[in-house]
């Protein structure tokens, strides 16, 4: 019997999830131009690709004012958002609905992430119509 262990560390570039921060950091190198540089938020372990991205992240997520603005909270996991649209998008993670790529079988909780994946990773493949249908589990 397999136990479900939550993968807490998420790649902000491709959405892949990892059990350990070190594994995420090794993975993040493949998304950078030189394969080595990335910028880690020491408060939440989010990996950003540029110093400017890290500065923007810190201002948006870790200042006293930004913490007050995050007033839309998920009732399932307590993650907070500045806008109701962010919470709505996040709630898809808890809904059991997923979009599965027919080429690599990777699953996504929302259609926009799925389309971004398909454009970035499989642009050379022809688009099929049935791979945009959500699947409930």
TrEMBL record:
<keyword id="KW-0863">Zinc-finger</keyword>
<keyword id="KW-0677">Repeat</keyword>
<dbReference type="GO" id="GO:0008270">
    <property type="term" value="F:zinc ion binding"/>
</dbReference>
<dbReference type="Pfam" id="PF00096">
    <property type="entry name" value="zf-C2H2"/>
</dbReference>
<feature type="domain" description="C2H2-type">
    <location>
        <begin position="9"/>
        <end position="36"/>
    </location>
</feature>
<feature type="domain" description="C2H2-type">
    <location>
        <begin position="99"/>
        <end position="123"/>
    </location>
</feature>
<dbReference type="InterPro" id="IPR036236">
    <property type="entry name" value="Znf_C2H2_sf"/>
</dbReference>
<keyword id="KW-0479">Metal-binding</keyword>
<dbReference type="InterPro" id="IPR013087">
    <property type="entry name" value="Znf_C2H2_type"/>
</dbReference>
<feature type="domain" description="C2H2-type">
    <location>
        <begin position="72"/>
        <end position="96"/>
    </location>
</feature>
<protein>
    <recommendedName>
        <fullName>C2H2-type domain-containing protein</fullName>
    </recommendedName>
</protein>
<keyword id="KW-0862">Zinc</keyword>
């Amino acid at each position: 019997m397999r136990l479900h262990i939550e993968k807490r560390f998420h790649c902000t570039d491709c959405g892949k999830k990892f059990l350990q921060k070190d594994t995420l950091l090794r993975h993040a190198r493949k998304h950078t131009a030189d394969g080595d540089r990335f910028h880690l938020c020491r408060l939440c372990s989010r990996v950003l690709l540029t110093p400017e991205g890290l500065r923007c992240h810190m201002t948006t997520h870790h200042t006293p004012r930004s913490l007050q603005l995050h007033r839309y909270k998920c009732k399932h996991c307590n993650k907070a958002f500045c806008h109701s649209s962010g919470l709505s998008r996040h709630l898809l993670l808890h809904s059991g609905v997923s979009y599965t790529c027919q080429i690599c079988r990777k699953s996504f909780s929302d259609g926009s992430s799925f389309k971004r994946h398909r454009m970035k990773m499989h642009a050379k493949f022809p688009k099929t119509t049935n791979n945009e249908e959500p699947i409930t589990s």
